[in-house]
Amino acid sequence: MPKTLNRVWVHAVWSTKYREPLIKRYFRGELNSLIKQQGANWGIQIDTVNSMPDHIHVLMKIPTTLNIYEVLKLIKGASSNWVNDHYFPSQQFKWQEGYSVFSVSLKELLMIRNYIYNQEVHHAKRSYQEKIKTLSQAEDLIL
Prior knowledge:
Elements (H helix, E strand, L loop, with lengths): L8 E7 L9 H17 L3 E8 L2 E7 L6 H19 L13 E5 L4 H9 L1 H7 L2 H11 L5
Antiparallel strand pairs: 1-3, 1-4, 2-3
Helix pairs in contact: 1-2
């Protein structure tokens, strides 16, 4: 039996700096794959990644040896370096400093996975900013 049981899943969302639409369709798939690969290298179980032009969604299980801040710092740093090295040699690609993170129960995994995969459909109805504002009001938060 393992000494530590971890069933803590999180859905993290963060934006490009100033919400600029810098994540181009022609490299989104590579970026998503890189994030999954880098996560595996650090012991982070990344289930689902999907990026939109100005933000990204990641569903992951964070190891008990890392906290959310550390995980997102690793992922954001590696991914922005990769984008700049391959597509923005002027080093103009940057992530926004903050992020949103939501706990996900085991019962919600499939629903959240589908939500992340279907981002283009969701954003045809509401923008990223509108969605985050709705979530923050529902949770009584201030963004």
